[in-house]
Amino acid sequence: MIRIAASTILVGLAMPAAGPALAAPAGAPVPAEPKLFRDWIVACDNGGGCEAASLASDEGMLQDAGLLVRRDADGLLAVKVADMTGKARSATVRIDGRSLATVPLPRDSEGWLRGAPANALVAAMANGRRAAILDPSPVAVSLKGAAAAFRYMDARQKRAGTRSALVAKGAARYRGKPPVLPVVQLVTPLPGAAPSVPTAAINDMRRRLDCRNSLGSPVSAEAYRLDRRSTLVLMSCGAGAYNYLVKPLVWRDGRLAPAQFDFAYPFDADSQKGGGVTLVNSEWSPAGRLSDWSKGRGLGDCGTRQQFGWDGTRFRLLEAASMTECRGAIDTLTVWRARAATVAAR
């Protein structure tokens, strides 16, 4: 579950769960769960990629600057440096008083280190005691748990005991192969306006799913064409200060029903009891992607992200990311990926 300090006041709705509430059927996606090591959190996805992020030392607190270490399944290493104040145009990372690298922050106050600078920085972090990001004033970043998080990455990527390990180094040569990502066959969405869905059918479904919109929250039912027979309806089902809920429905052959998913993080008890999937802050793109961003708190430093595609029968999970600690992380961690292959709409 997503953890938040008891003193933090949430002006929203129920917290999204970090993992599946029910046993997944055979062949369904099983997103990884992030693992906490003191002030660092790490996750490795089904494709063999791993990410580790720095956290504030105290629950519910924020970071003025942060780090995220990413190592792909093929061993390529990168470090993202972020200035949370949004004021810096560049930042220098210092470990135990020694400046290791300077990175421009051109967009969103974030920048990436790759290649030799990234490798040198991570090696210093694994053995260091204190870290600071200068932008230009020094901002402390905790290294407590960083080495353990990197060691976890070594183990999950089967690099422990090899020359390519970050912490658990050895003399062996790495001979592993990245896992093969699952391929999902998706239908290319048809252009043009969606067919009209009867208001009576939407109102009946609103009553059946108990979608009582709170005072002041919008009442809507946006429709999008999926294929020749199917229309997606995103029916509003309540809102808070930072979370807007919808129930995804499918209008097909004159019948409106909750959309089917191969996996979706449960947001509320209704989702777990068969009341249909609840999506939060969702969007539908012209490319045929349905996204979801369930915020753990209004600051957006924790929660879950999902992206789905339509296969002609149900929505399939393409990407999932999670951050289970509300402690100022600069990004969610990737926990599931799939490759999309498109076919013509039926």
Model description:
- This protein is mostly beta strands and 346 residues long.
- 11% of the residues lie in helices and 36% in strands.
- The protein has helices spanning 116-127, 146-156, 199-208, 269-272, and strands spanning 35-37, 40-44, 50-54, 65-71, 77-83, 90-95, 98-104, 110-114, 131-134, 138-141, 183-187, 221-225, 230-239, 244-252, 255-258, 279-280, 283-284, 289-295, 303-310, 315-323, 333-337, 339-343.
- The chain has a six-stranded antiparallel beta sheet. Strands 12, 13, 14, 15 and 16 form a five-stranded antiparallel beta sheet that branches.
Summarize the structure.
The protein is mostly beta strands and 346 residues long. The protein has helices at residues 116-127, 146-156, 199-208, 269-272, and strands at 35-37, 40-44, 50-54, 65-71, 77-83, 90-95, 98-104, 110-114, 131-134, 138-141, 183-187, 221-225, 230-239, 244-252, 255-258, 279-280, 283-284, 289-295, 303-310, 315-323, 333-337, 339-343.
**Taking Cα atoms only, what radius of gyration do you get, to the nearest Å?**
22 Å
* SSE string, helices as H and strands as E: EEEEEEEEHEEHEHEEEEHEEEEEEE
Indicate the structural class.
Answer: mainly beta
What is the general shape? elongated
Major sheet summary line? 6 strands, antiparallel
**Proportion of β residues?**
35-45%
